[in-house]
Amino acid sequence: MIFHALGLMSGTSLDGLDICHASFQKDDLGQWQFRILNASTFPYTEVWENRLRNATRLSAEELYELNSDYGFYLGEKANEFIKEYSLKNIDLIASHGHTVFHQPQKKFTVQTGDGRAIKLLTKLPVVYDFRSQDVLMGGNGAPLVPIGDELLFSEYDACLNIGGFSNISFKENGHRIAFDICPVNIVLNHFAKKVGKDFDENGNLARTGKVDHALLSKLNSLPFYQEKPPKSLGMEWVAENILPHLENENSIDVLATFTEHAAIQVAEVLNRNAIQKIVFTGGGTYNTYFLERIKTKTETQIIVPEEEIINFKEALIFAFMGVLRVNNEINILSSATGSSENHCSGIVI
Q1: Last residue of one domain, picked from the residues 308, 324, 339
Q2: What GO molecular-function term can you cite, just one (predicted)?
Q3: What ranges in the chain are assigned the alpha helix state H?
């Protein structure tokens, strides 16, 4: 049986809403196969970017209002996508939403964007809120994409996504583990904006900056990097542990220093775990300077795939997680998140 699904993904980088239309079916050996059929990114307007960026400052009433408004926004964009590609026979929409709060140690994570609003506008089955169940089960609620890495991208020793944060998944002793490595674009974009750019294209700004080695040492000494996985990061952690060290520094030098810091952390993980071949995805893959710095620190073979995989792998995997959910198959791995057991997560409406 072939399943057609839309995956909706909004990352912490706030580049826009990614929508991926893909088909999934099991082959004769029972292995899942996929095809990306259509994919688009809907850049956020300045109004939406600001609403999402400042969501952590909202009152409870305002946060509930955002949850409804953003749910209808997601439904509108899904309808635009369906109309643009003249799609028929969509089995489901799987929506990640946009993360506002992520505090698994307190047993909660909040992704705004009410799935019921999506269904009201699209009239299609919707799967949403993939993370909360895992957090309630003692997990980090992240990373979730390792189920897709395991079942769709097993030809690589490891998968690294570079977005707001960098996260990795790989097999260890027969189990797939995954964890966040360090912040990347969530910090780089912040300082690029201070010099009038939305992001540091190709790492060109960082390339011209000067690495502050005292600051670099301070960043590399943060306790998170010594913790054992599973572990995950959120904007709250960045605001508390990263930004206070950087805000009063020259923005170009911060870009140079933080790019070096992130490259060191990624390479350290690759080397420590003897990763032979890894695929890079996510917007940070286009930061050629960042990749250059990583390659100076590791002999791991880095594969940069075709653009649709770079740009839409996360949206693809959320679509896949929705398909697994409606089939009552495991879509979250406890070895990746630290929850009490593998489980099937997501609210279906």
Answers
A1: 308
A2: phosphotransferase activity, alcohol group as acceptor
A3: 46-53, 60-84, 115-122, 132-136, 146-152, 185-194, 204-208, 213-220, 235-241, 243-246, 251-272, 288-295, 307-326, 334-337
The count of structural domains within the chain is 2
Amino acid at 263: A
In this structure, the answer to whether residues 162 and 266 fall within a common structural domain is yes
Query: CB under 8 Å to 205, separation ≥6 — which residues?
Result: 192, 195, 197, 252, 255
Query: What is the phi/psi pair of residue 232, to 5°?
Result: -145, 160
Strand partners, 179: 168
Is residue 109 within 8 A of residue 125, CB to CB? The reply is: no
DSSP secondary structure string for all residues of 64-116: HHHHHHHHHHHHHHHHHHHHHTT-----EEEE--EEEEEEGGGTEEEEES-HH
Q: What is the pLDDT of residues 44-70, one digit of tens each?
A: 999 999 999 999 999 999 999 999 999
How far is CA 272 from its chain centroid? 23
